Amino acid sequence: MSSSPDLSRVLPRVLIVSRRTVRKNKFVDFVGEYHLDLIVGYGAVPVIVPRVAGVHALLDSFEPIHGVLLCEGEDIDPSLYDSSAADGALSLEQLEAVRRLHPSDAAIDHEKDSIELRLARRCLERNIPYLGICRGSQVLNVACGGSLYQDVEHELAVGPAGAAVQHINYGDYDGHRHPVRVLPGTPLHEWFAGDLLAGGDDSAQQQLMVNSYHHQGVRRLAQRFAPMAFAPDGLVEAFYDPDTYSPGEGRFIMGLQFHPERMRKPGGSGDEFDYPGCARAYQEFVRAVVAYQEKTAAGPHLPRGAPVPALPKLSKEMERRRKVISRSFSLAKDMYLSGGRTNPAEQRDLEAGAEFLESNTASLSVQQEKRLKQMGATVRNASGYLNSLKVSGVREAAARALMAEMTVNQLSDLAAFYGTMGKICSEVLDTKLQALHVNVNLHE
Question: Could you tell me if 134 and 266 lie in one domain?
Fold first, then answer.
């Protein structure tokens, strides 16, 4: 049986940030199950990023990231976008009324804001597929420099956009619907093409009835985005980046203010959507996620038949260091297998490997750095540890008795330790040596 997983079979990973609530006087993190069902159903693995203090600084530990789905949550901190400069900004009295009317949504969660904005910007920088639902669409717009209405009822009901729209109905969360006008030539129009209804006197004004549950929304759409749908009051209900939309090539950046995952027919099993197009957002998103994983796993494209570039040659000093470190790890491995003692010279050689492990932690996550330092300490103390478990006579019996008391996890760690150490150290060493010599002539 293989000792390591077949990475070619690892499913793509979609990060989803949880929302915090209180249950039985304790904090509980959750993600709506409809989102998870759809991600799993189309062939990706949802990885839940917990909304806990400090996670925003540990996002590297969630790599590889093949896609990000952001959905429910509280209002985004208005200091993160230009809320005061806009005409019609809410007064203090109006803001207080909003907080009373929407107590669970109007609260600000700074940690969630930080986590999600960092993830959104990472997606934008690296073209990682991103789907934002409701709050997630607002996060995407803010991450690109757009702004939000702090309350659409106050700010749009009296504006020039037209008819007022009920965007939230606390008494009928799943059943509430309102119309949106879908723009032709957009992905949304393609997904729902067979179910769009003519609206008003203009047959081009094609409408869709959608579920929504929000009191904020896009005020100024960021420049890179194009709208896909509007509510009758003028609110942007869907948008995307047309320059990065090609799911088959791993490109997908989109925000939907409405909830396609909740548009289910009443009285049924819960699996039947209002329209066949409701699930297309998730289907196309996961298609992009799969393509992105394949594209990034393949690495840089080389022309057919082209030779693979050789690694740069090392300088004499770097080659000497490599040999010293290799000898250190070789000694540690031999000691582990034989249970032998070391002489003073060998002990000094072990020190080289220990120092390398404990000092070469640049660009590593906190967990990786901690693990390397633990390995270094074990290498440094290898002779004393192994001598205490010398494989002979009574000592062997004592060792077996000692290990019989260890947990399965401890025994697994012990058995896998040197294999893991060698793998990690090899990867770190290769990365650092290549970085140091990136400008060396390949044919030197």
Answer: yes
Q: Is residue 123 in a domain?
A: yes
**Which residues form the domain of 362?**
316-436
pLDDT 10s digits, 156-171: 765 445 567 878 787 7
Burial label, 400 (beta-carbon count in 10 A; 0-12, 13-18, 19+): exposed
Q: Is the pLDDT of residue 443 over 50?
A: no
Amino acid 226 reads A
Total count of domains within the chain: 2
Query: Catalytic residue at 134?
Result: yes
Q: Which of 259, 284, 346, 425 is catalytic?
A: 259
User: Which residue in the list 66, 72, 123, 134 is annotated as catalytic?
Assistant: 134
pTM of the model: 0.64
The reply to whether 174 falls in a domain is yes
Q: Are 172 and 43 contained in the same domain?
A: yes
Give a yes or no: residue 396 inside a domain: yes
40-44, 49-53, 77-81, 420-424 — which is least confidently predicted?
420-424
**pLDDT tens by residue, 87-126:** 556 666 666 665 655 555 557 788 889 999 999 999 999 9
- pLDDT at position 272 over 50: yes
Same domain for 151 and 244?
yes
Look up 178 and say whether it is catalytic: no
Selected catalytic residue, list 153, 237, 261, 284: 261
190 in catalytic set: no
